[in-house]
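Exam review. A common question shows you a sequence with its structure tokens and asks you to describe the fold in words. Practice with the pair below. Do the first one on your own.
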Amino acid sequence: MAIDEHVLGADEAAFFKEIWCKYVPLKVAVVREHPEPTPHLFFSYRVIYNIWLSCNNWIGNQGALPLEGMAHFHQHVLMCKSKKVNGMWKTIWFAKIWIVWLSRNAFIFNAKAIDVEEICRLIKWKAWLWLRARVTTFKASYYEWEIDPRYCLSMGVAADR
């Protein structure tokens, strides 16, 4: 995926080169005459924005979301001082981005409807799986995770102490 500075602006393009290209594997390259801007793909498209709001309600984050990737990412990872907790928040953010990307591809290439509830369920599941795999102290059951993700994150840190 070419990251176009003319579409995003220099700061936003640099952010996506650092974050997206480094951590998210490229599975599908779509060449278009008029590519969709990245913020629209992941943050501002009405249905996608509703997915973010729904997931944030589940996590307990209220309020408006930024429409630019860098600000959006920082809003999710600068929530506390602990490096470990920030790492867990990054994992959740990447799970959201990954599932949104897969859902958009399913919509574009397979005409699969975008169902906000189903996508949020997949995000919860993927974030839980990734946290269980990456954070040795994260022991929450999926049931606990669905009910109270903030508590599960805090317990993952408290288990270190």
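Now try the second one, then compare your answer with the model answer below.
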Amino acid sequence: MYADDTELHYSSSQLERVEQVLQNGLEEVSNWMSVNGFKLNIDKSVCMLIGTRQRVSGGTLCLSLNDSMLKQVTSTKYLDYVLKRVRGKIYSINRLKPPPTVRKLLYQVYLLPILEYCDVVWQPTNASQTRRLERFHSKYISLCNDSSISGQSLTERRKFHTILQTYKVLHKLAPDYLHGIFEYAVNVTGRISRNAHCLFVPQLRTNYGKRSLYYRGVAI
């Protein structure tokens, strides 16, 4: 469930369990907003079932909020949403005309978290959209006049985040459901060679499979 930049997530192999946990979460959110004088826009609140095509085929999430059923969608244009938010924030910053040092601070605490949120997940998406993100990013940091950030592209940072996530998985610093997705070559092939202690690169034929962390975490 997401509304603007607020999201609820839950992962389980049982659809009934997903519905139960998310429904409880929705009720807690609704109660908190009522107590604090906020109102949730039901029309902008939707739910989405995420998984492989085979597992989510025919699956339906039955979630309600304030006696209204949430609409279930099959996709969302997340990067378009990110671009819209970043464009608005850059416009606001430019109106203030802050000095370069303040621009750098705003970049680090105001823009970068939006540009990089969940980038390990959405990294292998539409190339034209990621190029648009790069243009926004490059244009803004050029105004900061700071060499410490001017040489860092979003593409390079996303690669670093993927490597960091792979490290966390291998050292069991990531969520439990990610443990074991990477294997060493010797454990798969059973052969001792100079690459035996390297990670095994899965042989995938489809681009869908190659977009997964299971493949990118090793191939990168």
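Model answer, second protein: The chain has eleven helices and six strands. The longest helix spans residues 15-35. Full marks require stating both points clearly.
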